[in-house]
Design brief:
This protein is mainly alpha-helical. The chain has one domain. About 65% of the residues lie in helices and about 0% in strands. A two-stranded antiparallel ribbon has the order 1-2. The chain has a two-stranded antiparallel ribbon with strand order 3-4. It is globular. The relative contact order is 0.17.
Amino acid sequence: MPGAARSVEAAPNRPVLSKILGISWWNIGWIPLVGAALLTIIGIAAIGTTEPDLAARQWVYAIVGVAAAAVFVLPLPAIIEKWSPGVFMLTLGSLVLLVAPGVPEAIVRARNGSRCWIDLGPLDIQPAEFAKIAWILACAWWLRRAADLRTRTGVLLPIILTAVPVLLILMQPDLGTALLFFPTLLAMLLTQGARRLHLGIVVVSALLLAPATYPILKPHQRARIDSLIAQLTGDDRYNRTIGFQADRARTLVGAGGFSGNGSEGAQNLVRFNALPEEHNDMIFAVVACRWGFLGGLTVIALEVAVVAGAMWVAVTSRDHFGKLVGTGVGAMLGFQAFVNIGMTVGIVPITGLTLPFVSSGGSSIVASWIAIGILFSIAARDARGRPIMGGSAARGSA
């Protein structure tokens, strides 16, 4: 039959195409990719509610991010692993540049008291965003070669190594980004087989020592913690000072109701309430105000899909490097989304973290899309770089 003949002839084309490109197009990597794409579109629409010019710019950043993701799909995971330490050292160098004395203001200019951006003329680069991804890759490279993570020394060494970028980011200062590293490291250590007892001791020690860091925080950071505690106890004395942003965000989330206020209504509400950083840190409040509970729930579901997809890539990867990278990317994006949404609805202090794929910002969205490209590359190949077909590695002839 002609139809049968066509199906028989078409069958070999799929492995041939995969062999030529080195990947399989049918893989789990589509889950985080589609979730990230939908979040990006929602984010641009939300940014355009009050900042049409920034929304147009975000389209450009998104296209650059997708192109960067496509570039990272092409190399074999083994190649990405090989270059991970070098890339990490480059990002450390950029973090040092931000805090080094004597750097001209034309290159690094303080904004709102923070030195987080490198000025490249028409573009501003935030190295910490790329350092997060480079650190995950370098950490996966190191953990894959670690002698024994089931000892206290084996667990402490990666913690000490992680402290280097964390301290550099804290010096900018950027507390929010710095907080993402250690929860991600714990997830990667668990994946690699570290003992839960040792990790539990580290976590409990950190929780016990956390109050001791309060006196060394900057005044505005301490004030944000005080504001959150007051809010949780029903005290509104900070609502017109340090707690203004959190109070306005909660008001707009509640104003969205079940189905939202539409574009014009949300625009008026956001402007009337004078929400600071509505296109960036507080973008979830704009989403909830414009599309209501349904819109907020959709964004949460898509963030969960991205994280679950990354973890699924980790579980199904046949290579330890792929498992660790999938776990690291999923843990970091998940924790970042939780903190951002949590600070918007008033359950965690405001730390200046963006909502992955949704908030305005070139470095953030490009770095996040690079992570998606790496996940897709890992999901589409087995440990030897062969395309994965139907859940198993394609078998080629010798």
